[in-house]
Amino acid sequence: MSPASRWNRSHRRKSVLAAAIALIALGALTSLAFGRDPLRALVGIAGKANARSGMRIGIGEATVVSPGHGPGSHSPTATEPAGSADNGETETTAQTGVGAKRTPPAGGDITAPETTITSGPEAITLATSASFAFSSNESGVTFACKVDSGKWGRCKAPKAYSSLPVAAHQFAVRATDRAGNVDATPATWSWTIAAPPPAEETPPPAEETPPPVEEIPPPIEEPPAEPTPPSEEACTTTVSSVSAAQSSVAAAAAGAVVCLADGSYGKVSLEASKAAPGVTLRAAHAGKATIAGASLQGSNLTLARFVSTSSVTIQPGASGMTVEHNRITGGGQGIDGCPSSTTTCNDTRIIGNQLIGPFEEDAIHLNRYHDANGDGVGILIEGNEITNVRENGNHSDCLQTVWVGDHIVFRRNYLHDNRCQGFFVKDQASLGGVSGPIAGITVEDNLFLRNQEPCGPPLTSCGQPMYFQVFGPYSGFKMKRNTIWGDDYDSIAAFREGTGSDTQISNNVIYRLWTDTDMSGISLTENTLCLREGSWPSSRPGETIACSLPFANPAADDYRLTGSNRGVDWAPAEVHYGP
After folding, report:
1. 65-106: per-residue pLDDT in tens?
2. CA-to-CA distance for 139 and 119, rounded, in angstroms?
3. CATH fold of the domain at 106-193
4. For the chain, what are the domain ranges?
5. pTM for the complete prediction?
């Protein structure tokens, strides 16, 4: 090639390069005048110059391709920083240049999309996983997500994370529309994963420092006195055999108290119908007379102050029966309330007893119960201590009702150190019953603690029962001022298979409130919970979420909250149970 030819070709290259640079500068000035992005204009114009001249001009990474090297020749690839996403998806942003794949916004779209998070985890939770739903006001957008200080990563709704650490967290998401506009104010969602409360430990006793010799030592404090048992009515007559006790009760006038002398006896069967206030058979001295079970038939009879080594049975058709302040330690059922699927027991009272398992089945087993006198109480179960009831393969429950009744009142009972379904209502609604599905359930001021004792023999392993479980349908349900605590995740109140719209749950302290049915129509107010799971009302006035609470003295089972109107308002040490 001649020197002239080489000069001409070099001159043409310089001319084309000068024209391209002038064109780029003109495009950038024009974009600024119309409020557009000059950098994108530079990219577009540089691409045109490349197409016309065969010369590639990049900004940031410039590469020149000589004439004669067309699209099939080597072209540079923009470096793509990868965002981080735990689902493997990646958001890619190319460096600006002719080699970048984005084009200027179609129709001049420079409006960024808005991003909205529509759902996420509770503000405070123990769950270490989280799922988020989100959307944008524009269609066809892509999303990028991140948690805390992590990198942005491309994502889709719903976005789930797992194995998150105990800490405060923030999730952020932003949308990018088809024109490349990015939401400059990403939507965020903040929540806290709380640590489970540590096991409570009894502090070591304080070291006593001996007083100086010259000082008078402080007086020795007396231990707190045992709760005073209720006063006893004077015995009308005292007998010393089962047969004499049975005949004396049958013959006694209303208001009489027949006493059984100290000693051990067989089973007592009482059958008599008395006018109010009825007739009482009791131990002459509380806890000093032991019987091998009892049967109550008729009306207005009371069994009191005995130690019973077997079941106390309230027979079908009985009315106005009372079982109070006994210690019952064995039998198929501790107290068997009306063993019938058709005939009711009316206006029954079970008060102040100690039920100490194991039993072959339940501590208290209820079948048909009914409010016959219209006072709103079909059966009253109040002030009882239930302990050592352990699942042995026979569905061992602390209290079970399955054959349809009405107006059960369960109040101020102390359930502890069991492995049982504590309060279990699963009535057979198909039977009809006195009032159809169970009507009237009141659960008030009860204390449920420690339900993780070993299984009862012959079982060596068994499932974890729920301390509180109610199945619908029912109506007139009220649950107030109960405390269910001490087993963390297994301290549970469960609601199953439907509920009445008049249900009221208020002023309780419950570690875990759970349902697998729709409870959204009930009243749920002024409760303190650690966890709430399932479908509940969106409006829950006064709700507090907390997993560690300042109970008065958990080591002594005093789970009162000082100055609070939530949970139990009594301590077991202040209550007299049994004879």
Report:
1. 333 333 333 333 333 333 333 343 444 333 333 333 344 444
2. 19
3. Immunoglobulin-like (2.60.40)
4. 1-76, 106-193, 231-310, 319-326+346-574
5. 0.62
